[in-house]
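Progress against Task 2.4 (sequence-to-structure conversion) is shown through the following example record, which the project officer requested during the mid-term review.
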Amino acid sequence: MPVPFDQAAHELQVSPAKLRRLLAEGAPQARRGRRGRGGAALLDVPAIQAWRGLAHDPGALPRILASELLEILAGAIATAFVETEGSHKQACAGVLAGAWYLCAQAVRDHLAKLDKSIPEITVVPLQMSHLREIYRSSGRVGPSRSPLDTKHA
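C-alpha cells generated for the chain above:
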C-alpha cells in the first residue's frame, strides 16, 4: 500500500534527505509528487526496498515494475486524451479511463504470477480520475459502478 513521504522515510529507517537522494537516483514511486493540494508523492516501501536490493536480488524486478507501470500507463493515456481532437473527445475520456484500468489490471495479474507479493491496485492515478469526471460531465450515461469509482489517488 503506497504511503506518504514522511511515513516511507520512517519505515525505511532513513532520513528524509537520504530518501530524496534515493528518489533522485531512480527509486520507484507509486505516484509522483506535484505542487498543490493533494499532490504529495506516494511511495511503495516494499518496492523501494526491492529497488535498493536489486543488485543482490534480480527477482525483485516485478515488484519495482508493478510500482511504476501504473503511473506510466496513466501518463501515456492522458497524453492520448490531450492529443484527441473532435466532438467525440469527451466520450473518449471514459473509454480511455476504462482502458487504463484493464491494462493496469492485466499488468498487475501478469506480474503477480512472477511474484505473489504484488499487491492489488488500490490507487487510481489522478489523471484517470480526471478522465472519468470529464466523461461524466459530458452527459453520457455509463455504467453506474466501475472499478474507478471507489479508488482515487
